[in-house]
Structures are given as C-alpha cells and as structure tokens.
C-alpha cells in the first residue's frame, strides 16, 4: 500500500513538473542560439600537438590527423590542407583507424590522448563514421578514458579490436583489449591485466588476422608525480585471433618494464621492432625480432630511441622496405639499416609523436609533432609545415582595450603570442607576434602602457616586454633571505591589478605583489597551500625514466583574483584545493574551502572570478581530473566565501576549468568545460551547450570584452575562439521566449571606414575570420517559419524602401546582416558588363527601420546607423559625397533608359523592315543614326577582359560613379573636373538622342501603327526598378 | 508490485521505442510527398520553370531556372540587360558561359559525367529513388534550424572527383511536425572548402497548381527567392543545347 502511494506521488510529481514546464520556456542549445556562432582566430602558424596520423590504404590523397585537443582532421589533397571532421565530440584523440575493406566509409576514432603529459585531456569512448567522417556515432566504451589502438578485421568490417590504455589518474578496470563482432554495438573484454596496466599498443600481422601483438603498460600520474613502469608491463602475442595471449620476452631484460612500442614490417611479418623502457639505461631502446617475436635482439639505445617513453612510443616501418624504420622522439629518428643506426629527421617542431609513409612513394612522409603536421618529399630530410591546422593549445587568454582589441596567450610547447581580433582580409599568420619561449601560459598587457608580461613554465622566466622600445627584462619573483624554496606551478598565476595599473601579482605558494611592474616584489601572504611535503618529491618523478620537467610542481597557487570593486579584496586558489581570501590587501587571509559543501578535499582550484556585482561575490571553479574525478564543480558566494552554492546542473557534461560572468546581467554566465562552452541565462538553473561552430573543445580560460561584449576563449586545442557580441543573450527572459518574434536591442551599427585590401595567405593557409562589419538585425523566433511568405525590408524613417534582405527563418535567434548598401543603379545594356554598376550607394548615418512581414503580421525594429567614430571626415564632406553620388547614379540610370529606348526602337525598325521591304531604306537610315549614337554611349564590341573595347560614356560615367560612391569623403577637385567633362558628353549625347528621336519618331510610330505592331516603352520608373 | 514496475518500464520503453524507431526512411519520404501534394501530382510533371532572384547583399539578380524530365536544364541570370546562361544541360553536354568572353564553354568530362548521373532526378531525387538506384536510410532525430527533424541519409550513384570514385551522400532533414524538408547537407568534395559541409535550407513553402515548393532557399550561403513557378513550361530545345559558335 505504502509503495502504491509512493508510486502515485511520483506520478503526480511527474505531472506537476510537466505542467510547470509548459509555463516556462526552456530552450537548450540549438533551439535557442540559432545564428549566433563562434569565430575562430587560430592561429595555425604554430599549430598544436598531433597524436596520430593515418593514411587511406589505397587513395594517397586521403590522410587523417588526430590531435591532442583539436579533434580529427581530414585531408583530401595528400596533406596539403586539412578540414575538421569531429567537432561535435570530445577533442582529445588517441587514435584513428580506417576500415581496410571499406576505407571510404568506415572510420573509427578512439578518444583520449595516450601521450600522457601533465596537460593531457581525457576521452569518452569510441566513435564510428560510416560516411567517411561526415557523421559520427559514439559506439560505447564510455569509461575507456584513452584508447591507444583500433584494429579492424581486413575481411570483416563488423569485427574490430580495441586497445584501451585507460585512466591516467587512477585505477580502472576498463583497461585491456576489447572486441566487437557486430560493428560496435556490443563489446567484449578479451584480455585484461590489472587496474593499473593498460593496452598501449595493439597491432595485427598484415598477412594473418589471427596473429596480433599487444603491449601493456603500467603507469600512473598524480597532480605531483608521474610513474612509468612496473612488473606488469609486457609485450604479448596471440596466434588464435585474440583468444589467448602469451608474453614474448625472449631477449628482453629482466625486471620492471615501462612503455613498450611495437611494430611489424608490412612487407615481412617475421620482422618486428619494439622499443623498451627498462630498469637499466643500457638496455633501453630498440629491439628487433626476425622470427615474429620468438627471439629479440637489442640494437640501439641512442638518445633518440629512449627519450621520454611516455611521450614518444611510436615505431613505424616503411611500407615497402622492412629495413627503414622511424622512431618518434624529440627530433624523430630514421634508420635505413634495419635499426642498427639512426639519424634525426629534418628540421621541424620538436616532439614527434607519429610518422606515416605515403602508400606509393616512401619518400613522401608525414610527421605529427607538438607543433602540427609536417610533410616531407625526400624521405624525411626536409620538412614542410602544414599551415591549415589551427589546433593550438592555449592555456590562458587576456585582452586589451584597443580597437580592434588584441588577444594575448600562451601555448603548450609553442611560446607566448599576441595578435589582433580583426585584421584586413582576416587574421593570418603574419598578424601574430611572439612574446615568449618554451611553454607559454599567461600573457597580460599593462592596462595603459605598451608593455606585455609573459612567462614560461614554472615561472622559470617572467618577461616584461616594452613593445615600443623593445626592452626585454625578466621579472620573476626570487627567493630572498629566509624564504623557503619558491614553488611555482607549471602554469603560474599572474594578474595585473584593475585598480593600480603598475601593480602585478604572481603566485608561488605565496602571493607576490609588485607596485613597479615587476622590479620589486613583496610577499603579501603566508604559504596559502597545504604545503604537503609528500607532494613535493618531483626530483624522483617519472618512474623507470626520470622525468623532472617541473610539470609536476605541486602545492602551488594556481589562480589569483583581485576584486574589480575593491583592490584590498584578493582571492587565491591553489592546485591542492585551498581557496583563500583577504579583505585587507593581504594582511590577513582566510581559507574558506571548508565552507564548500560537497567538494572533495584537495580538489584543484582552477579559477576564481571576482564579481562586479558585489565585493563579497565570487565564483570558484574546481576540477579534480588529476584525482581521477571528472565531475564539474562550480560555486558562487556572495559573502566572501562564508557560504557557497553550487551552480552546476545535470546539463553540464565534462569537468569545468573556467567561468566568465557578464558585466551587465548577473544571471548570464559562461562556463568553460573540457567538452566546450555552456551558457546559462538564469544564473545556473539551466545550462545550454553552445555548439554553433564551437567544437566540444577544452576551454581553459575566457575573457569578456567590456567594449564589444565579445567572449574570448582560450581553447586547449582549437586556438582562440570568439563569440562576438553576446549582448542579445542578456536580453533573453521568459517574456521574450514567449513572444512569437522579438527583436533584440543592439548598439548602433558603425559604418567602418576600412581598407578593402585582403590578405597574403594562400588557400592552404588558415586565416581567422573577422567579426561582421555589417549592421545586424537580430531577432528571436518562437517557431521556425516554413510555410508561406516571410520578407524583410530596410526602410528609411519615412517608410521608403531602401533594400530587401533575406530574413532568417529558424527557431531561436536569427541574425541578418545589412552592409549599409542601398539599391545599385540600373546600368545601360552593352556588349559587355560594366562592373562599376555593381557598386551601390551607402546610406547616411541615421535611423532606419527593419520591417519584417510574416504572413499577415508585420514586425518593425528601429536601427541606428552611425559613422565611424575614428573617421576625421566632416559632415559637410559626407554630404557632398552623397550628393554627387546621387547625381552620378541618376545619370547612369538616365543613360540606361536612353539605351533601352534606342534598343527598343531599333528592334521595332528591324521588325518593320521585315514586314515591309519598301520601308527598308528609311528604316536603315534611322537605325544607322541610332546605332552610331549608341556606339558612343556604351561599349558595343569586345569582351570583359583584355579583348575590351575602348571605353565609352557608360564606362567613364560608371567608373567615376563607383569611385565616388565607394569612398566616404567629398569628391576631389580632380574628380569634379572629370565629372564636368563626362557631364558635357552626357548632355550632348542625350540632346543628340532627343534630336534624332524628334526627327524620326513620327515616321516609325506611323509605320508601326499601319503595320499593327504595338510600340510601347516601359515608363522610366518601372524600367529602373524591375 | 514487481509486475507493475515491469509494466511501467515496458510502457516507458514502448514510448521511447515508438518515438525513436517508428519512422522508417520510406515512411518519412512518403509523408513528405503527401505533404507537398502527393506522388500522383508529381509523377506526371514534365518540367518546372522557376523565376527567382538571388539576393547578393541588396543587389537582386533575376534568375530563371528550367528543369525538364530527362535531365535538360538551364540556369540563366540577367545582368545589365544581358541574359547569361550560367549552367545548362541538354542531357548530354553540360556547359556554361565564360564571364570574360561571354562565350559558351563545355564543362570538363568528370563534371559532365557526374551531372548526367542525376538526369532522372526530376522532379525530385527522392521520388521512386529505389528505381533510380539510390538508397535512403533513417538515421534518427536531430535539431536543425532550431527544430526537431527526421534525418535521412540519401545515397546516390558514386561520383568521380579528380579521378577517384566517391560516395554521393546527402542528408535530408524533415521537420517532425509537418514532414517538410527544411534542410539538406552534403560534403564539399573539391575546392578550398573541401571536407566541410554545404548546408541548404528551405522555407516559405507555397502551393503552385497543387504542388508545394519552397519559395525561399539558401544554398550553401546563397539566398534565393522564388517569384514564380510554372509547371510544364514550353521551352525550345535550343535553350538547352550548347550553342554553335
């Protein structure tokens, strides 16, 4: 009975929630955001980390590139250029596999990078495309974390083996070898070692699908250490199609092993190459077997073969020659004597993770590095960079208040940079300036001086760079008498004060403050971390191969935020889970992390956003992925951290690294997660995944531009991405969402005066998009318009039509662009086209109406158009420009009508002659006179290129019109003189036409009447508007 | 109690399964044809002439498009009093007008061969698609244009691109509310945009002699507005033929 009551209560609860849901309109993602779409700045000049390269087995034009944080890219032109094909899914990729029997259809992607550096992201399973990469479906293994290998049975597309390396930051029973026999619908674990040891490589004998090799690796990372190797690492072989697996270590050293690479020569299945990480450095490196793994011989332990096995563990054999072998590494190494000796590959970005050979010509090679893909045409000696892969991994972004504003940030293994948010023709490689070496992180501009601060890993250097004088000094805080060792995070926090422009904060375990742009430093805090000695043993980090790069420094501050309202309020968050606040400029600090209910202890404090809406208001973002915890944690306090409220809902998928508040609407928030951007318009009660041109990429940091309202995102894999002008999102509320159509208020549209010169980029180079420079009409539609008419017209204030635009019809937000153009002039018909006639006059500054008609309804929006505030052109000069433009516009149309009249008359005369031979002489005389006149009015011979005829009146008039109409300032005296000359010729021509017409009109009109041929000309107004 | 729970689970499952699996590609396509006027209206069509305008940022360019059963077609634009055939086919030869010389030029052999594969598509590639050797597959529901749609994968005969045979796949999106096609997507196979998706949207459906046509379309970013549709127009054969020069 009790249970039944409960059931009824549950059903009632369902019913009531259904009712309240009807009242409130909640739109998620694609239902709401419509045309609002992200803009990619790149850059691609330094690109980003590549994890895997795959070549189509029969068509060498098709190459796939998998990246560490930028998804999967496909080339159709042999690697000349690449396009992204995996934007809807998590962007950290372990491997790509092409089905050998359906290579144009079936593509598999295993997510989760396997080159397990500290900054590596995570995966969420295996994906399959059956249309060459256009559409993808998640086929399971959601907790696989990182997939190292996918092998498709060459004879049966439904049979696939998957090597799961598994979790990096904790134990996992998901590791091992999986198999499907139904194309990925179901999976069975075929081989498993233990919760610490995953499959790092799985390959198949190219000649025998029953023979497979698998390497297993025992490995673990924490926030403060890395360990590679153990007793469970091993190399296995199966000869029965994966049913049983046996170790093949005959010739390998005893003891613990680390990461093992394995490859089989495509042309000789007996030849295997393996690279070992062992307990003894002289036993590390390359091993070769000539008997399919029965015995092994150690060949080489050069630096290139043994360097950082966790990061470089790929060995590739030439598809035609089993003696040519390439090993991934710091520089990449190639052997042409079967692995006995190696030399480095040609010059390219360091850290080579994968290499692939062309199927037909082994001199053609592709190499995937920490800085993009390189091509070689000469067997790896000379390397050429691919310029269309904007997969750069930003750790951070900041902006200045220039117009257009600049974007500053640092990249994984690619230094620090700044570049413009807008540039003539688009943002290209040459627009970016380097301002730091090594790994780049935070780059900030001095608020008023032309000075940039940048840093490299662990604050080994913090630079102060004067853009004007080129003065470059290092300013990192240094230990003073009595200080313990300063601990700086790999990604050291650095903040410029919003109140004191010369003030700079940098965090070690202390907050350091400088009031003189980094020359002198004071500590304004005690050690704000947990200061746990167990987490400070980085010297011994790495496991079998020591790896003390500084990447594992721990118990450090990670984020510092000064309140925009009060410079004495400063927040600091640490990687070991503290959040501290001072209200007196650093005299006293309070650790408020214990006040957060539900947050696991020692969870990394990734970001603190000090709010503009109250001194005690802040957002804190925590993320626990380095503790194997992928839950999202974001909290808000309004009382200096005494109490916190979680603002995360079930909508948010993926752990959070950053939050950005709007400066106007407290309920509008942007969340940067490991799987992309989420937006809330109700303070976090509901979150929407934003996916319009926005990949599911990890967002490490965001900034909101106060002038432009642009959201600028530092993505760790797709460069800088901008969401232009988010102000319409501020205006969305239940009233708006319940209207059939709602226009959003926008700031006045600026007619920008800019160069029309474009870029120098070739089609193979990535060029970042500029923001729209058009006037925009943005509206919300409650329902998509599909049936019946819907039109949009721009009118002046008095309702006169200026132009028509094509309205957006989708449900949600529609954006229509208007480039300020009015109608272009009607141009006289000639033998050729007059390109000048495609120039339209621009509207003047003022108020305009956008009138949208949908069925019987009419909706009107008033928009304001203003001149470029940067312009020095006077109102009087603008007035002159418009006046002369209109005069020339009208002359063009009058000329067009005259030529139309001549053409109509001449065709009448032709018709009359055909009907009555006796009229031929008279008609020919008149026609010749008109033809002679027309030949002076328009071009009547030649073509549109170098066969062009001598320009006539139409061409001269058109050219002057187009030049003046497309400029902003008054016509020059020279142009006016030119206009006088043209006008004289124009007047003469029109007079000549009138004279001819009055002389002959009576004759052909009479004849037409007699012959019963009607002769009616369209009236001028109809002619010019048709 | 256990049975009750089970039946609820079964009930929920049946709702889920009907909404997910009730549609087959043929059902969606068949409902689409019913909505736009019925197969019996479409099948007898011999040709269609569309008078439309391309809106290029305020500049309205008149365009006339004619398609006849059997592959004859042309697209003619009108610029400054000149009519320029931008693309035409007599069913065998594909040609267009060179803008420099204003003379007709034939398309390359590959483009021609690919275009001829669609000769029997009129009036709609989806009509009797199996007889044409095409395949349709129901993929699921997806939000397009902010609207829930049925997604159909439509595969035509393979085309050849730069000497390599490739699948010719488009995705159709039908509004789940009214079964009208509101968007299609295809992969761009050559040129600088290759690998990206070309999206077309359709709206402003209006009736012409019993058949509904989308009077507003955006094809890969180009807006087109239809002003008039004529069914079974009379057009001289010479309009489709490569002009003698």
Structure commentary:
Residues 1-22 of chain A have low confidence and may be disordered. In chain A, strand 32 and strand 33 form a beta hairpin. In chain A, 51% of the residues are buried. Chain A is 15% helix and 31% strand. Chain A is α+β, with helices and mostly antiparallel strands and 1026 residues long. Chain A folds into 6 domains: 85-385, YVTN repeat-like/Quinoprotein amine dehydrogenase (Methylamine Dehydrogenase, Chain H), CATH 2.130.10.10; 401-476, no CATH class; 487-540 and 549-646, 7 Propeller (Methylamine Dehydrogenase, Chain H); 660-726, no CATH class; 749-756 and 765-867, Immunoglobulin-like; 876-1025, no CATH class. In chain A, helix 6 (875-915) runs antiparallel to helix 8 and helix 7 runs antiparallel to helix 9. In chain A, the strands form 16 sheets. In chain A, strands 14, 15, 16, 17, 18 and 43 form a 6-stranded mixed β-sheet that branches. The model of chain B is unreliable at 1-21 (pLDDT under 50). Chain B is built from 4 helices and 13 strands. In chain B, 18% of the residues lie in helices and 49% in strands. With 245 residues, chain B is of the alpha+beta class.
Q: What is the overall silhouette of chain B?
A: globular
Q: Give me the strand/helix succession of chain B.
A: HHHEEEEEEHEEEEEEE
Mean pLDDT of chain A comes to: 95
Which secondary-structure class do the elements of chain A indicate? alpha+beta
Q: Into which percent range does the helicity of residues of chain A fall? A: 10-25%
Structural class of chain B: alpha+beta
Biggest β-sheet description of chain A: 6 strands, mixed
CATH architecture of the largest domain in chain A: 7 Propeller
Low-confidence stretches of chain A: 1-22
What's the CATH class label of chain B?
Mainly Beta
Helix content of chain B: 10-25%
Signal peptide (chain B): 1-22
Keywords (chain B): Lipoprotein, Signal
Protein name (chain B): Outer membrane lipoprotein-sorting protein
Organism (chain A): Flavobacterium rhamnosiphilum
């Amino acid at each position: 009975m009790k249970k039944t009551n409960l059931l009824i209560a549950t059903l009632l609860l369902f019913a009531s929630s259904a009712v309240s849901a009807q009242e409130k309109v909640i739109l998620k993602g694609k239902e709401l955001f419509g045309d609002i779409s992200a803009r990619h700045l790149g850059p691609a000049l330094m690109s980003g980390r590549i994890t895997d390269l795959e070549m189509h087995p029969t068509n060498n034009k098709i190459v796939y590139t998998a990246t560490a944080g930028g998804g999967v890219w496909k080339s159709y032109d042999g690697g000349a250029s690449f396009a992204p094909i995996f934007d809807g899914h998590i962007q950290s990729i372990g491997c790509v596999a092409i089905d050998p029997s359906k290579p144009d259809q079936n593509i598999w992607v295993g997510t989760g990078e396997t080159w397990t550096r500290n900054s590596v992201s995570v995966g969420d399973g295996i994906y399959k495309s059956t249309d060459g990469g256009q559409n993808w479906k998640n086929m399971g293994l959601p907790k696989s974390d990182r997939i190292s290998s996918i092998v498709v049975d060459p004879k049966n597309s439904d049979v696939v083996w998957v090597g799961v390396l598994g979790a990096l930051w904790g134990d996992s029973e998901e590791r091992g070898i999986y198999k499907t026999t139904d194309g990925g619908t179901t999976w069975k674990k075929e081989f498993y070692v233990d919760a610490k040891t995953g499959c790092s490589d799985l390959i198949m004998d190219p000649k025998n699908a029953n023979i497979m090799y698998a390497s297993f690796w025992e490995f673990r990372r924490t926030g403060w250490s890395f360990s590679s190797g153990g007793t469970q690492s091993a190399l296995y072989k199966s000869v029965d199609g994966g049913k049983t697996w046996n170790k093949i270590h005959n010739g390998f050293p005893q003891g613990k092993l680390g990461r093992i690479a394995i490859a089989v020569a495509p042309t000789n299945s007996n030849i295997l190459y393996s690279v070992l990480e062992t307990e003894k450095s002289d036993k590390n490196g390359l091993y070769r077997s000539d008997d399919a793994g029965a015995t092994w011989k150690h060949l080489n332990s050069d630096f290139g073969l043994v360097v950082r096995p966790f990061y470089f563990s790929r060995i590739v054999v030439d598809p035609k020659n089993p003696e040519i072998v390439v090993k991934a590494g710091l520089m990449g190494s190639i052997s042409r004597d079967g692995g006995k000796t190696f030399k480095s590959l040609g010059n390219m970005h360091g850290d080579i993770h994968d290499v692939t050979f062309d199927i037909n010509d082994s001199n053609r090679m592709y190499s995937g590095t920490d800085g993009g893909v390189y091509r070689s045409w000469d067997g790896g000696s000379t390397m050429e960079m691919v310029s269309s892969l904007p997969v750069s991994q930003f750790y951070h972004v900041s902006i200045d208040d220039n117009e257009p504003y600049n974007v500053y940030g640092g990249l994984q293994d690619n230094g620090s940079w700044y570049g413009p948010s807008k540039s003539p023709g688009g943002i290209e490689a040459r627009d970016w300036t380097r301002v730091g070496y090594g790994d780049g992180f935070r780059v900030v501009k001095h608020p008023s001086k032309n000075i940039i601060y940048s840093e490299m890993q662990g604050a080994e250097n913090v630079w102060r760079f004067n853009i004007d004088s080129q003065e470059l000094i290092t300013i990192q805080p240094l230990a003073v008498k009595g200080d313990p060792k300063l601990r700086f995070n790999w990604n050291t926090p650095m903040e410029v004060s919003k109140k004191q422009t010369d003030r700079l904060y940098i965090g070690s375990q202390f907050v350091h403050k400088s009031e003189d742009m980094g020359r002198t430093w004071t500590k304004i805090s005690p050690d704000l971390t947990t200061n746990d000695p167990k987490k400070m043993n980085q010297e011994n980090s790495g496991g079998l191969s020591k790896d003390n790069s500084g990447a594992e420094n721990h118990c450090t501050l990670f984020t510092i935020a000064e309140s925009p309202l009060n410079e004495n309020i400063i927040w600091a968050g640490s990687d070991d889970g503290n959040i501290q606040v001072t209200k007196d400029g650093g005299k006293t600090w309070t650790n408020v992390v214990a006040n957060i209910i539900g947050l696991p202890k020692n969870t990394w404090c990734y970001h603190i956003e000090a709010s503009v809406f109250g001194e005690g208001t802040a957002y804190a973002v925590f993320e626990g992925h380095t503790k194997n915890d992928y839950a999202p944690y974001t909290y808000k306090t309004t009382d200096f951290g005494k109490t916190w409220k979680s603002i995360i809902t079930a909508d948010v998928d993926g752990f959070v690294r950053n939050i950005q508040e709007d400066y106007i609407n407290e309920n509008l928030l942007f969340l940067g997660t490991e799987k992309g951007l989420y937006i809330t318009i109700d303070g976090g009660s509901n979150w929407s995944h934003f996916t319009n041109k926005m990949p599911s990429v990890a967002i490490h940091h965001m900034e909101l531009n106060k002038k432009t309202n642009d959201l600028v995102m530092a993505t760790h894999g797709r460069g800088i991405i901008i969401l232009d002008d988010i102000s319409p999102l501020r205006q969305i509320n239940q009233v708006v969402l319940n209207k059939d159509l709602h226009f959003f208020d926008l700031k006045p549209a600026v007619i920008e005066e800019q160069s029309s010169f474009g870029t120098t980029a070739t089609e193979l180079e990535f060029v970042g998009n500029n923001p729209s420079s058009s006037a925009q009409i943005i509206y919300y539609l409650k329902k998509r318009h599909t049936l019946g008419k819907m039109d949009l017209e721009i009118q002046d204030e008095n309702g006169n039509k200026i132009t028509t635009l094509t309205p957006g019809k989708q449900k949600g937000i529609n954006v229509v662009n208007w480039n300020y153009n009015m109608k272009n002039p009607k141009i006289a018909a000639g033998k050729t086209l007059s390109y000048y006639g495609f120039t339209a006059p621009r509207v003047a500054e003022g108020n305009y109406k956008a009138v949208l008609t949908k069925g019987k309804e009419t909706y009107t929006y008033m928009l304001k158009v203003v001149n470029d505030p940067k312009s020095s052109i006077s109102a009087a000069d603008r007035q002159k420009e418009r006046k002369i433009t209109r005069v020339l516009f009208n002359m063009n149309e009058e000329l067009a009508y005259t030529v139309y009249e001549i053409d109509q008359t001449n065709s009448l005369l032709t018709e009359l002659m055909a009907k009555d031979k006796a009229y031929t002489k008279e008609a020919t005389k008149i026609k010749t006179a008109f033809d002679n006149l027309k030949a002076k009015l328009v071009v009547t011979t030649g073509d549109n290129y170098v066969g062009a005829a001598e320009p006539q009146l139409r061409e001269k008039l058109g050219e002057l019109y187009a030049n003046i109409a497309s400029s902003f300032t008054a016509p020059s005296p020279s142009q006016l003189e030119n206009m006088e000359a043209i006008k004289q010729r124009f007047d003469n021509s029109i007079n000549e036409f009138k004279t001819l017409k009055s002389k002959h009109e009576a004759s052909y009109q009479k004849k037409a009447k007699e012959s019963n041929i009607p002769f009616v000309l369209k009236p001028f107004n109809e002619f010019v508007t048709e | 109690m256990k049975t009750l729970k089970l039946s609820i689970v079964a009930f929920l499952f049946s709702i889920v399964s009907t909404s997910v699996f009730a549609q087959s590609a043929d059902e969606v396509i068949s409902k689409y044809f019913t909505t736009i006027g019925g197969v019996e209206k479409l099948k007898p069509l011999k040709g269609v002439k569309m008078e439309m305008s391309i809106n290029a940022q305020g500049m309205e360019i008149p365009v006339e498009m004619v398609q006849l059963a059997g592959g004859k077609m042309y697209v003619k634009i009108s610029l400054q009093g000149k009519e320029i055939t931008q693309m035409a086919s007599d069913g065998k030869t594909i040609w267009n007008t060179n803008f420099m010389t204003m003379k007709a030029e034939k398309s390359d052999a590959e483009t021609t061969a690919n275009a001829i594969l669609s000769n029997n598509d009129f009036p709609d590639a989806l009509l009797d698609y199996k007889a044409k050797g095409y395949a349709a597959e129901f993929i699921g529901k997806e939000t397009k244009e902010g609207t829930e749609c049925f997604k159909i994968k439509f595969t035509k005969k393979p085309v050849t691109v730069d000497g390599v045979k490739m699948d010719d796949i488009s995705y159709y999106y039908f509004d789940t509310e009214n079964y009208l096609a509101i968007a299609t997507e295809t992969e761009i196979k050559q040129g600088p945009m290759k690998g990206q998706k070309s999206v077309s949207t359709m709206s402003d459906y209006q009736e012409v002699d019993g058949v509904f046509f989308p009077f507003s379309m955006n094809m890969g970013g180009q807006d087109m507005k239809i002003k008039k549709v004529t069914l079974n127009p009379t057009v001289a054969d010479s309009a489709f033929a490569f002009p003698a020069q």
